[in-house]
Amino acid sequence: MRINQAKIANELGVSVITVSRALRNHPDLAEATKERILEKARELGYTRLRTPKPSSTLRRAAVVFYGTSQVDPLASGVRRLIFFGLHQQCKALNTETAIEMPSMSEVPAAVRNRSVEAVFLFGRYTAETVKSLGDIPAIAVSSYAEGIDLPRITADNFGGMRDAVSHLVEHGHRRVLFIREEEPLTQIFLERERGYEWVMRKNGLPVEVATWNLETDPRPTVLEGIPKGSAIAFASDSLAGAAMDYFESKGWELPRDCSMVSFDDTAPASRKLTSFSPDWTLMGKMAADLLLAWPGLPRRTPVEIRVPGRLSIKGSVVSS
After folding, report:
1. 80, 179, 221, 229: which sits with the fewest CB atoms below 10 Å from its CB?
2. What are the structural domains, with CATH classification, of the chain?
3. How many helices (H) and strands (E) would you count in the chain?
């Protein structure tokens, strides 16, 4: 029988990732765990044991996801697309990536151990997080916190929502509700809100903003009482998708009964949701290039690089 890493993991009751790290002599794995896995691999006749490359030829970077309650940090379409580009470019630059999901107050193990040469930060990092990095180069990817001196690469959050809301206004909608997530430690949803406000004020239209936390309020009370014929701009596809489920459960026909636009362009094609579409994979590639291949990147200054995008029109808006 062919022995693979999954078989070793099953025998020991550990994850395949842990087995893979042991076989690659990963520095963040406890020595006792490594030895136990290597012993089992030899016992089972695993034939792909190899000597790891010298550290001088292989760099290591930590990909740190803050503020995610998911077991799989790549379950989100946005994070998955960004990581795909980042991981591919890291491989091209001979850099190994290690994923961590620390709690808000926790310093990543790779940072504590000083076992990485670069850190990619996703999510709700804090000033204390950045302070703990010391002299390790780092960049914030997609999300960022205002007032913390760190280079960042982002989508065009303001411009993208501006284009999406303009699409509604161009179709004759004079009242547009904007709904965003409750994200107190990141700026991306506030930037999207500003893009919405800019369009509404430019056209002399009323500004109406509401927040919705999908985790604490899965029943969309924010949508109750919204009349047919409304127009809504959502800060993310996850909110828009939940809203579409809600309206369809009430028997509404979309988009006839409610025009919608959103941001991310990660909803299933069957949704037919008009959404601003940043090039998420390019964002990941650029993040890797900036941090690993551009020695001139300032280490602790709020330099911002925006990736391009376009409004992906899919028929979720009708004329008012």
Report:
1. 221
2. 5-44 (no CATH), 59-155+281-307 (3.40.50.2300), 157-277 (3.40.50.2300)
3. 10, 12
> What does the angle CA 125 – CA 61 – CA 122 come to, to the nearest 5 degrees?
25
Contacts of 149 (CB under 8 A, 6+ apart): 130, 300, 301, 302
Provide the pLDDT confidence category of residue 54 given band limits of 50, 70 and 90: very low
For the segment 99-156, what is each residue's pLDDT rounded down to a tens digit? 998 888 888 999 999 999 999 999 888 888 899 998 899 999 999 888 888 999 999 9
And the tokens for 34?
A: 């490594």
In the numeric block, the tokens 């009349």 are attached to 227
Cα separation, 245 vs 10, in Å, equals: 39
The Cα–Cα gap between 276 and 299 comes to: 30
The answer to whether 46 and 8 have CB atoms below 8 angstroms apart is: yes
- Taking only the tens place, the pLDDT of each residue in 101-112 is 888 888 899 999
Question: Of all helices (H) and strands (E), which one includes residue 232?
Answer: strand 230-234
Per the CB < 8 A criterion, the answer to whether 65 and 122 are in contact is: yes
Q: 194, 123, 201, 210: which is closest to 159 by C-alpha?
A: 194
Written as six digits, the tokens of 228 are 């047919």
Nearest to 271 by CA among 286, 255, 257, 291: 255
Assign residue 154 a region: left if phi > 0, alpha if psi is -120 to 50, beta otherwise?
beta
CA neighbor of 290 nearest in space, from 87, 157, 137: 137
> Is the backbone peptide bond immediately before 255 cis, with ω within 30 degrees of 0?
yes
CB 127 within 8 A of CB 138: no
Question: For residue 296, what are the CA distances in angstroms to 62, 90, 301?
Answer: 20, 18, 12
Lowest mean pLDDT among 129-133, 184-188, 232-236: 184-188
Report field, pTM of the whole predicted structure over 0.85: no
